[in-house]
């Protein structure tokens, strides 16, 4: 049965690192997802990935923590709390249970990873204020992987059944970059969808604040 199989962890690269990918890191595994936490928010269902991300940001509300000036004034703990809250908000809106989010130093080039329903972010994302853009994108990317896993187990969660089918097949036949190469890995469905979603979330959030930091340091995240 679907709930009995293990889904492989994957790596993604954000847009600005696309032309010059950093060295690949080790691949971990993720198991079956957490139970669903229903959402009471009435937001529209979108077939287009981009408009779906925009609808999510519309429903979040207060985004002032991600204004560049405010972010620069916040201490590390406040930045952590802002990202944890962002994960909680996105998860609630998408109808899934929020992952536990933690921060720790990760090997060079690795911004974050998702494993066993938990998200680990590189502590550099909060210790260096210039990483605001990458912090948002990495958090959104990892959160969306949890959404993808939940949708595979409960297809009705996602409005596009063909995309869910594609994700399921991809998770069951994950293309490890160490075996298949970076380009094939990069374009596989679960990575492409998460990358597009995270990029849209980031750009939409930053565009709503006066001080736009889109295009800052970008690197690998899993």
Overview of the molecule:
This protein has nine helices and seven strands, in the order βββαααβββααααααβ. The two termini are 26 Å apart. The longest helix is centred in the middle third of the chain and has 22 residues, at 132-153. Helix 3 packs parallel to helix 5 (132-153), helix 5 packs across helix 6 (161-172) and helix 5 packs across helix 9. It has 222 residues and is mainly α. The protein has one domain (2-221).
Fill in the keyword field for this structure:
222 residues; mainly alpha; three-stranded mixed sheet; 7 strands; 46% helix; globular
Largest sheet: 3 strands, mixed
Helix content bin:
40-55%
Q: Order of strands across the biggest sheet?
A: 4-6-5
Oligomer: single chain
SS-derived structural category: mainly alpha
**Structural domain tally:** 1
Radius of gyration: 16 Å
Number of alpha- plus pi-helical segments: 9
Strand % is 5-15%
What's the β-strand tally?
7
Whole-Å distance between the termini?
Answer: 26 Å
| Helix and strand run | EEEHHHEEEHHHHHHE
What is the global morphology?
globular
| Low-pLDDT residue intervals, each spanning 5 or more residues | 1-51, 211-219
Query: How confident is the prediction overall: mean pLDDT?
Result: 77
């Amino acid at each position: 049965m679907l709930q009995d199989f293990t889904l492989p962890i994957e790596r993604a690269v954000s847009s600005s690192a696309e032309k010059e990918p950093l060295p690949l890191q080790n691949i971990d595994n993720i198991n079956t997802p957490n139970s669903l936490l229903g959402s009471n928010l009435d937001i529209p269902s979108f077939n287009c990935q981009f408009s779906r991300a925009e609808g999510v940001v519309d429903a979040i509300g207060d985004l002032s923590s991600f204004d560049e000036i405010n972010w620069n004034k916040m201490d590390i703990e406040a930045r952590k709390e802002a990202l944890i809250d962002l994960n909680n908000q996105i998860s609630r809106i998408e109808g899934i249970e929020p992952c536990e989010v933690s921060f720790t130093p990760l090997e060079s080039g690795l911004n974050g990873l998702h494993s066993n329903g938990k998200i680990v972010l590189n502590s550099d994302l909060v210790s260096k204020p210039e990483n605001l853009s990458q912090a948002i994108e990495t958090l959104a990317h990892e959160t969306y992987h949890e959404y993808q896993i939940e949708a595979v187990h409960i297809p009705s969660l996602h409005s596009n059944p063909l995309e869910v089918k594609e994700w399921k097949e991809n998770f069951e036949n994950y293309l490890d970059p160490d075996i298949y190469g970076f380009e094939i890995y990069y374009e596989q469905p679960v990575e492409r969808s998460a990358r597009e979603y995270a990029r849209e979330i980031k750009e939409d959030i930053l565009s709503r604040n006066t001080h736009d930091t889109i295009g800052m340091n970008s690197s690998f995240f899993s």
